[in-house]
Each structure stands twice: as C-alpha cells, then as structure tokens.
Amino acid sequence: MSLVPRLGSGIPLVARTQEMRRLRAAFARAERGAASAVLVAGDAGVGKTRLLTALGEHTGSCGALVLSGRCIDVRDGGLPYLPFAEALEPLGSAADPVVAAAVGGRPALRRLLPQGGAPEPAGAGAGAHGQVATGAREGMRRSQPEQDLGQLQLFDAVLGVLTEIARDRPVVLLVEDLHWADSSTRNLLSFLLSRLRTQRLLVVASYREEDVHRRHPLRGLLSELVRLATVERLELAPFGPADARVFVTALAEEPLGEDLVAEIAERSEGNPFFVEELLASGADCADLPAGLAEVLLARLERFPAETRRVLRVVSVAGEGVSHAALAEVAGVGEAELDEAVREAVQHHVLVIEDGFYVFRHALLQEAVYGDLLPGERTRMHAGYAARIQAHPQGRGHDAKLAFHSLESRDFGTALPASLRAMYEAEKLGAPGAALRQVEQALSIWDAVPEEDRPDGYDEVTLLTEASFFSGTSGEPERAVAYARSATEALPPETPPGTAAQVWRRYSEALLALEGSLDEATAAIERAWRLLENEGPSADRAWVLASRAGFLRLVDRPEEALESALAAVADARSARSAGAEASALVTLGTLADSAGNAGQARERLAEAERKARGAGALNVELRAMYFLALSYLDQAETEPALKHFTRGVARAEESGLIWGSYGLELRVQLLSLRYVSGDWPADDGAARAGRGVSSAVAARILAIWVLFLVARGRFDEAAALLPELRRQWSADLQIALSAGDAAIELAAWRGDHAGAVRITEELAAWLEKNEPWLLSGIRATALGMPSVVALATEARARGDHSAAEGFVRTGRRLLDHGRRCAADGAPRSGTLGPEGRAWLVRLEAAASGLEGPADPALWAEAAEAYSYGAVYEQALCRWHEASALLAVGRPGAAAALEAAHAVAVKLGAVPLRDAVRDLARRARVELAGAGPAVPPVRTSPLTGREQDVLERVALGRTNRQVGEELYISEKTVSVHLSRVMAKLGASRRAEAVAIAYDRGLLTTPAE
Known about the structure:
Elements: H1 17-31, E1 36-42, H2 48-61, E2 65-70, H3 82-88, H4 97-104, H5 127-140, H6 144-168, E3 171-176, H7 183-194, E4 201-208, H8 217-225, E5 231-235, H9 241-251, H10 258-268, H11 272-280, H12 290-298, H13 305-317, H14 323-330, H15 334-346, E6 350-353, E7 356-359, H16 362-370, H17 374-390, H18 397-407, H19 411-427, H20 431-444, H21 459-472, H22 476-488, H23 496-511, H24 517-531, H25 538-553, H26 557-574, H27 577-593, H28 597-614, H29 617-633, H30 637-654, H31 660-676, H32 694-710, H33 714-726, H34 732-748, H35 752-769, H36 775-796, H37 800-823, H38 833-846, H39 855-864, H40 870-887, H41 892-906, H42 909-922, H43 943-953, H44 958-965, H45 969-983, H46 988-997
Parallel strand pairs: 1-4, 1-5, 2-3, 3-4
Antiparallel strand pairs: 6-7
Helix pairs in contact: 1-2, 4-6, 7-8, 9-10, 9-11, 10-11, 12-16, 13-15, 13-16, 14-17, 17-18, 18-19, 19-20, 20-21, 21-22, 21-23, 22-23, 23-24, 23-25, 24-25, 25-26, 25-27, 26-27, 27-28, 27-29, 28-29, 29-30, 29-31, 30-31, 31-32, 32-33, 32-34, 33-34, 34-35, 34-36, 35-36, 36-37, 36-38, 37-38, 38-39, ...
Pfam family, one: AAA_16
InterPro entries: AAA_16, P-loop_NTPase, Sig_transdc_resp-reg_C-effctor, TPR-like_helical_dom_sf, Tscrpt_reg_LuxR_C, WH-like_DNA-bd_sf
Region (Disordered): 115-145
C-alpha cells in the first residue's frame, strides 16, 4: 500500500536516472536491514517533489509502506511536528493488524495521531494540523522538565512504531520542504537520523538550498547530519542543456520549433517548474508569465527596502555589475550597500562571479526588471549610460552604451554607439550581434536630427549593412528584404559606383533564395549598366566579378570568362585584391566545367590566398567551397573531405557558418560524411543555429534524416519528413535529400507501394522544377528495388496484370534516370564517378523487373562505389548476395560478409538486420552475428523444417517458401512432408494448428 498520491500532472520524470538510481540503492540497503537517510537539496521548482513522488511509487510497488509529509511556510514558529503528523496520520486508521498493534502500544503518539488527541478547538486547523497546534498549546502550560520528558517519549514512540512496522515490511518516510521546518520537527528528524541502525527504514527529506542561508536554523543541523555514516546528501541540479531540451519537448502539448525549444531550455536554465510556466505562457513564450513573476518576486518581499532597491538597480544592468558601478547608479552609501548586497547574496538571490554581482537566475532578473516603474527604469538606464561614458573601457563598451542610451531615450548617443558596436561585432565574427546593432540603429534613425547623425552614413548604407549581416546570420529572406529596401531608398543623385554596389548586394542576396535566379541576374545587369561606361575602379571590378559568376550560372560561359578576365584587369588596376579573388573563383569554376581540374584548383587556391589577405571572408569561403567541390566532382573523397573540413572550420572561426557559403560547406561536409561512412556519434551535427531561417535549418535536417533512416531511427525520421516536405520549394537540395530519405524509409519499413509513390512524386517534381537533374538518377535508383518487389509479389500471387503494371512503372523510372544521365549538366562536363555509380545501380535494380536480378550488374554497381561511398557499396553487396542466391551462383557469403562488416561498423541497423536475415535463410555464417542455424530446441523439427513451417503458417506457397529460403520448390515439399510426419498431420493446415498447440509456433498466422 502506497500512501503517496500520484502526480496529477502526469509530467514525465526526465533525465533523473542517476538520482533515482542512488535513491533506489538506498532503498535496497534498507530492505536488507541497513537503515539510511538521504537529504535531497535543490532549488525551488527543480523537481524535488517529482523525484520523491517517483521514489514513493517505486518503493510502494515493491511492497514498502510509504509515509509522506511536508512542512509549510507558516511565520512565527510554524506548527510543531507538522510533517510527521501528516506522514503518520494514515497509521491511526490503518486496518493492517501489524500497524494497529504498533500504534496502539504507544500512547505518546496521541499527540500526533488525530484519534488520540483532545477535541479540536474552534478555529483550529483540521485533522493533524489542529491536533498538533492543540498539543503545542498544552505543552506550553507544562514545566520544562515535563516538556522534555514528553518530547523524548514522543521521539521514542515515533522511532519505535517505524521500527516495529519495518519488521514486517520496509518503511519509507518522505519529508518535504525542511527549510520551513519548526524547531520541534528539526529535533525529531535529528533524533531519528542519529538512531538509524538495522531497521528496514529509509528516510528521505528535501529542502531548498537557496533558502538555507548562513543564519538559517537548518544550516547547522544539516552540517551535523551529513557527518552521520547513515546519512548522504543528494544535490538535485537543474537539467543540463540537452536534458532541458528533452524535457521541453516531452512537456509540450504540440511539436515545437527547434529555436523555441532551445530558447525555453535556455531561459529556464534547466529548472522544470520554470519550463512549465514558460510553456504555459503562450506559443512564443516571449513574455515572463505573470504567475511565475509573482512567485519569483514573492521571495524578495521579505527583504528590507534598501535591498530591494539595490536588486532593481542590478536588474537594469542586464549583466554582471561591479561594486563601484552599483554604488554610483544606486546612489546609496557604502555601508548601506554592503548590507543590502550581503542580504541578497546570503539568500542566494545574487551571486558573485569574477568580482561582479549577477542574479542567480536570469528569470529572477527578468521578473525584477519587469516590475520597475517606467520612470525609475529610464533613470537607472541613464545612470548606467553616464557611467559607461565616464569610464570607457573593455570589450563591448559601445554595445552597452547603445543599449542603455536607447532604453533611456538618448537616441543621439545610442545611434553612433550602435554603429560602432556593429563593426566590433563583425570583427569578433558575430554577425547576429552585428545585425541586432544595425537594426537598432535603423529603428531610431528618423528620431535623430540630421545634424546629429554620424558622418558617412545614410539610410541606404544601413539597409545594405543589414542585408549583409542578415545573410551571414542564416536569414536569407530578411537579407533580400533589406537589400530590396536599399534599392528603393536610393536617391536620384546617388553616385553610380555607390548605386551599383547596392544593386550588386541585392543580386547576391537573391541568389540565396530558390527560384530567384532570373531576378538576381537582372539586378546584376542593372548594376553593370551603371558602370559599363566608367573607367576602371574597385566598384567596377566587384560588379564585373559578380556578373561573371551569374553568367556562369545561366550557362553563358564565354561571356562569363570575358567578364571575369575584365574584373581581374580592373581589380589589379584599382588594387582591389578582394574583387580579383572573386573573379579568380569564377575562372576556376569555368576551368572545372571545361574539364581542366588542375588549372581550376590552381586558380581557386590563388583566389583563397588573395581573399584571405584582403579580408574578403565571403570570397575566401566561396573559393574554399569550389576547391573542395572540384575534388568531390571527381570522387576524390579524401581530399574533398579535407577541404570541406577546412572550409567549415574557417566559417566557424569567422562567424559565417550560416552565411551562403558557410552553409554550403557545412551541408556538403555532412553529406560527404554520410557517403564515406564517417558518421557523427551524436545529433549535434544536425543542430541549426539560433535564429536561422527554417529553410536554412531544413538544409541540415534534410541531410541528417538520411542518417536517421540508415541507423534505424525510423520514428524520428518520420516525424521530420512532413515538415521537410513543406520546404521542398524553398531549396532544391532539401527536396533531393529529404525525398531520398523518404523513399528509403518506406522501403526499409516494407511499404514498397509508398516508396514507389514517393519516387514518382519526386521525379515529377524535379521534371517540373529542374528537368533532368543528375540527382534524378539517385532517386530512381533508390525507388527501383521497391518496384521490383511489388512486381515479384504480384507474380507470386498470380496477379499478372498488376505485375505488368509495376514493370511499366519500373521502365518509366528507368527511362527517367537514363535521361537524367544523358541530358543532365555535370559541372565538369561529363558524368563523374558518383553519377556513373548511381546509373549502374539503377540498371542493376531494373534488371530484376521481369525475373531474377543480374548479380553481375550488382557486383559492378558495388565496384563503382569503391571511390569511397562505403554505405552505398555495402547496400549493393547485400543486393548482389540476394541476386546470387536467387540464381544459385556462388559468392554470396563473401558479399554478405562485406556488407555486414560495414553495417556493424556504421551502426546501420536496418542493413545489418537485413543482411543477417538473408544469411540465416541462406545458412551463411557471419562473423560476429551468431550462428546462422537456430540453437537446438526441444522440438522434433530441424532448423530448416522450422523455417519452412513458419512460412507455411504465414500462408506462403511452396514456391514462395523456396524463393525466401533459396531452395527449390521440390525441396520445400520434402521438408513439409517430414514436418507433417513428425507432427502426425495429414494436411499442411493441420500441421500448422498442431505446431501452435505444442508451442512450436508463436507468431500468429496472417
């Protein structure tokens, strides 16, 4: 019988396995007669009650008597023995004879048990609470020796009753919120814990660490208790970042975006109660919930007014505050400030980090700041701004000045400070911070008189900067919006060079969006027309270089070459190394397209060096990307991996990992790791940055879902695919990767009709949006085995019309793949090793449309992937083994062994299980997979006879059984005859029924 109520909320106990393990271990010791106690410490809302409730449910299910009580926050001394009275109250009415006998023999317990106390006086609390209060008043009328004797008798009675009940079954006593315990409760707890010996008793008590300050009466007791050999302390810390995200996801009533999950986990700092309140506040969880704010602020109401004022000043800083700054802004004397801060620190409201005062929890800072009156908020911000101006020092000075000036409505100071902070953030590789600063400057631009604005800036300049930083922060849609606004805001008198750069920025921003190439090309042509008749200059060189890149993209290589060479000449004349590097990148890509990989790599390496020397980070990343792509196109996997890894490291170092080429480098590296078998150990590789657009995040997830499918994490993959399907039109690569993953997921799940449907949908989508793309070969190759499976199943059941329909579908997909190979446009001009491998794989799969597949074609496909595509090669080896077994040729064992080794190494569970199943049916022993023949059982049937009977039970014909087990139809008939003879059956159906009755079959027949 458990006396602990279940959690009404049903919220899962997430990520507390280690803590629960320690508590369960303590209970296990108590069951063996080694009594112990655990003191659970943790902040408010961290999950102490949930943990103790879970322990109560576990121990109750193990047969223990679970008793629970809690202290309450009552001023002026509290209620004596309240948690023990609440915990022991069920014993007074328990029907259990052991409990009744233990209680009845101890009259001292009448002070705690309701039925033993005096009649409840009017106005007293109900139940145990009222009895305890009555006992306390009666005790005050006794002399001190009588009180001491009565208390000792009560303590002995409580220990005695628990000890006696524990002889019959373990007892678990749960006491919550010790920080509110009165002195009597603390004394009784100390008495119990100091006398734990061989009782089958576990005592678990919880308290709020943050409330037990230096002068708290519980503090001294705790230090004494933890010295006892039978007492241990368990600190319940907030969730770490990963566990917090898991908790947020588990708690949410509907799926949340990754950004929102991360934001709630971060703001809550892993506190489960804060998570619940933030989720309850609404869809975006932007504002601090009123209920949570009240709970947080209630803690501060007990502090003196001077302490509360100091806390308000700290909240305005938004970061750590030095003592000197706090004294100046708060305007209080040193002595008063010391006392106020000491009070806040001792009560764990403020902590000291590196010599600065900060709130222990950011949400408490939010609550205090939100409670400020408008006037005092403005004055305090102005005070911080004045101090920053008087003491300019340290990194982030301008950002702090901009923040406080803006909040105090001093826009004339905030505007230049924001612009200086923008450039500082750019130098630090923080484009997101730079974007926030320039957006802040834009928001107050019109509020600052023209004569007070910084020289050299106008609205067009700010919009262009905002576009650039949006793009490098992974928000291409905002980059386009800002760049378009900049073109619309251009004054008629703008110099041609300046206007051309604005239009060039617009064209490059558009390039990041799918389906905007025509508009982007028109924008760069407009930029070129502005400078076409001008002399050589850096502006002209940059426009020519960008124009060359666009001309290459629209398949006008001669004009692209002419423009790139002109850009190099202009750049050298104007000494613009960045523009020259940009043109060299285009020259390198043109050389690659012409089949001259050596020249391409030389030019791309030169472009990288020049761009780095000029500080042109985006050009440098573009050069690194195309250099790595040059090796990838030729299936030179190792150098490609090396260069993509270099590029990603440089993008992270420069803060441009979510810019156009930073993203492309990361996506290509993750894709290449999938192909080469260098699979990440955790999910961190798929995590998008905070604030990036959904389309950018989808680029990464579309690759990652391939890993999920290949590893057998089907439910996770299935949950991501619908959202990725909605993002197909946002980026072609999302459609390709997510579509491929969806085909493979359906195929591994045995949903071949679904796999074929997705393949046809993807092929049709590609024909409409990007006809005869080379990636169409891969899509049709992935879907073809499912077409073959459907055709084979239709023929096996005698449905020749359906089989012919599936064959026609297969022929249509085969034609699509062949046309993609013939009419596609490889960057190098000819179909590379990867494309050829997928084409051979498509042909190998299609060879099984009307009969057994050709093992030689599957072997050829496997060999074609030997350039480094280890997972795809293993898949082909599995198909090769199946084809060899189907036609009775040797060599299947070697192919299966090769596929199995790769699947085990990668953790590719579906492939591993498929290989093992095939090996078992073919009686092939695989290293590390256990015996192919099932272990000896108490059964008259041999392993092969059991295999045959299992398939007959599923309704298979003798021919189908033979095909699955790679034996002839005649051999199946022989095995089945032996089975019927051994089981005494005259028909196959009777043999199946007898096998079920005798427990030889456990899987229900279909």
